[in-house]
Specification:
The chain has five helices and eight strands, in the order ααβββββαβαβαβ. It is of the alpha+beta class.
Amino acid sequence: MRTIVVLGLAAMLLLAPLHGPAQAQIPHFESRKADLVIVRKSARSLQLIRAGEVIKSYRIALGRDPAGPKRQEGDGRTPEGVYTLDWRNSNSNFYRSIHVSYPREGDDHHAERWGVSPGGLIMLHGLPNGVPADRVGHPYVDWTDGCIALTNEEIDEIWARVEDGTTIIIYP
């Protein structure tokens, strides 16, 4: 009888759903990939979306002059519009970076008219290599040249949850 009780308890423990600390170590959203990234410049937020549901939000820093759309190289603005996260660089000057497909068709009209470069290499990226967040004022100071900056831990999460080809929408 004692053997049956012990075997029954063992079976219950093996089949029971996890609760408490063991479950907390593996949050549900960590296993889900995002199918959309939304940036709201005015709110300084980046959201990972899956099937219309926000699975994670981050506080971000932007270009040093973020109001309005990017017009030309060196203006310190972060672009606005619909783009694609199209490639990544694990060996950049910043801790990991994911490229935003700026400029797209239409972004370069202003630059062409004024005879300037529209710029490029707009990235989601971590902190400058070897520089702590408080040294650049992250996330409270807009310190990039037009990129979207996060902490190194945050870009690691995004790197794991966003595939190349994912749409990113950058709102004013």
